Structures are given as C-alpha cells and as structure tokens.
Amino acid sequence: MKILILHRVPYFKIEYHRGISHDLHDVTYFGTDPALATLPPELRCERVSRPGKRSAFEEARDWLTQRPRDFDRVISASEYELLDAARLREHLGAPGAPVHQVALARDKVLMKQAVEEAGLSVPRFLPLPRFLDLDGRAPWHGRTVLKPHRGASSEDVLVFDTPLQAATAIIEGRTGVARLDTGSDLLDFEVEEFVSGPIRHFDGLVQDGTLLVLSASEYVGTCLQYAQGLPMGSFQIGFSHETRAWVSRALAAVRIEDGSFHLEAIVHQGELVFLEVGNRVGGADVVATVEMATGVHLPSYELRVLLGEPVAAALPEPPTGRHRYGWFVHPGHHLAGQEFQGLDGAVAFRASPHAATWNELPIGAALPDHITYQAGETVLAGIVVSESAEETRDWLIDLFDSLSVRTRPAALTTAQQVSA
Length: 420
Known about the structure:
Helix content: 25-40%
Distance between the termini: 55 Å
Number of domains: 3
Structural class: alpha+beta
CATH superfamily of the largest domain: ATP-grasp fold, B domain
CATH class of the largest domain: Alpha Beta
Strand order of the largest sheet: 13-12-9-10-11-14-17-16
Number of strands: 18
Number of helices: 16
Strand content: 25-35%
C-alpha cells in the first residue's frame, strides 16, 4: 500500500512504526523540515519537504502536479491538517472520510448543531456574525464565551460577564484579539453561553462507528486557565454504561466513525453537556495515560483502522492492576522572553512514588513563546499514578498549589545585540 502522511505532529508523539509496517508499505512523509527532522533516521520511508508557507493541501497538490503519483491512503494525525488530508483524498480519489464529514469534527458551530439535533445537551450558541446582527441580544444571560470555530488550546478564547459586554468589545475593536479587532476574521468566531461544572474529557477509538475503547478523565484546571498561565492536568475516573452510550451518540452525531477521538463535556446539574470533539488523540500525556490504563496505544490502533485493518479482536487485555493515572503540565508561554531557573515547591513531588514521569525544563532553557503542552518545551509535564481517582486528583491539586516558577531575563542573542 502507498501511504502519504501529512506530517506535523512530532514523530515520537505518534510512533507511526507501531501502527504501520514500513517494510510492508511504501510510506511518504510530507512536512516542513522541522517536522521531518523528528523522523527516526533509520526509518524506511520517503521524506518530502514542503515550505510551510501555505496549507498542507495546497503545497501537496502543487508537489503532486509536478510529480504525479497515486496514494492508497492519505493520513494526518494533526488536528490542524485533518481537513487538508480530506481535501487531498478527494483530489486524489483516495478512500477515507470526505471534507464535509471531517468538517463536522473541526467546526465548533457545525458539531454543536449536529449534537443538539441528536438530542444531546449543548451550550446555547450563535455564529459571531449572527450575534452581532442581533446587537448582542443572545438567548441567554450571564457569562459569555467568545471562541474561534476551529481553534485549539484555548487560543483567542475570551469570557465576558454578559452578551452585551462581548458585543460591545467586538464592535469597538478592543477584545485584544488582533484578527477580531481589525474585523478581518469575524466569520471564524462564535459565541456561546458559559456553562459551569466539572469538565471531563473522553478518549478512545472507534471503527465503523463502533466504540471499541473508552477512557474518562476529569480536568484539574482548564485549558483556558492554562492559556492564561496556570497549571492544569486531569485524572482518570470510572464511567457508567449510560456515559458510554452518551459518548457513542455524540460521536455518531458528528460522524466520527473511524479513528481516535478526544471529546470534552461539562457536568452541569448532573447532566453531561457537550463542548467539543476532535477526531484525533488528546494532547499532553493523554495517549500515555490511556495506554497505561487500558494497554491500548491509541495512535497505533488508529493507524490500523485508517488502513482498513479490523482491530477489535487485536486489542490487548487491560493491565491487571487497576491504577488511576493522570497527567499534569505547567505552562511557560506566559513568561516568554525569560529563562527557566527552576521550580520552587517541587522537591517532595519530584521524588514522590506517585510521579510516574517528571519532565522539567533544564536550568537556563528559554521559555516558549507559544502555548504548548509538550514535554521539553513547557516548564513541566508528567504523569501521576495512584490507587484511586480521588488520590490522583488530590495529588494534582497539591502539586499545583505548591509550585512556583523562577525565571530571569533571557540573554540577548548576537543578532539582538547588534540590533540593539
């Protein structure tokens, strides 16, 4: 089989060799030079570099126009390039989910419309142009969330006290989001009512619309708070047959029929309220913690599903020890321009038997200038393990309450010194 992979996510996050035999198949990785540099040197594959100036679809189409060839599968593991892969499949006539189906799991307005039509609860919402046409009069009162249709990591997400405050800030061009304040990207945003309650994420695997693997977790902190500079994590919890059925209905509504998923919901007044879903694995250490709990490495089995291999009978038995795992990350992007000088309050946690992994930046490392959950980029990332969900949760809360980051201004580079 000839397989084209739009390569964006670092190789070690997916470990493609665990799901695709590179000896049996002819695999081509199409990506920017930094992305291709993450491929193992010994991996049998073709590496095709792209400039990264335009979309992956546009640059792949141009490359294939110059060097025509066919592929049996076109795959992307990146949320940002799922639509590019779908467009390229349609361009090449390759099998796989079409653009209109993939869009349901990428566009937050479309997915909420579909889930609501399936009879599940969603926050009340409006596309931003419609909201502005109504002069900020929304069918809800109180806190209002402004977010991009297809964003991730809570970038450019804002919360206002009322719909009117949100409308006023947008109309007057003072949201602080440049592409909104210039009026250039109004079509790319929506508003929705703020729904309170614990936030959960569900991760797993489906094939032919059948839910094969499911893991449930609850956040400590939120993605929005993380974007604002606070630590976050999650801990695994049990779930009922009713919850499993709810997840299946949500996935069916947005036509996620094959591959991994990462679904978020709020427990509001005892009921699950759908927030959003992606047809991809979760970030941070979601993949690792799911594998520890279930024995299933989600990216590997997703790749097998996307190649058309039946996987239900091949799934491993879960480990005999029923531990509860969680992951944690401490941000550094809000301290961009600084050098990391260490963590205060970390000694007891670093040495704790509950700390299954602990990845801390080296002293003197530059802090990131973008939101990232990636170990080796952000201040701290790791995995916690205990005997119960409550113990895992409490460990995370204590960790976050104890940590503080020491920094100093980053030394100027030679180029910066010359410029100064």
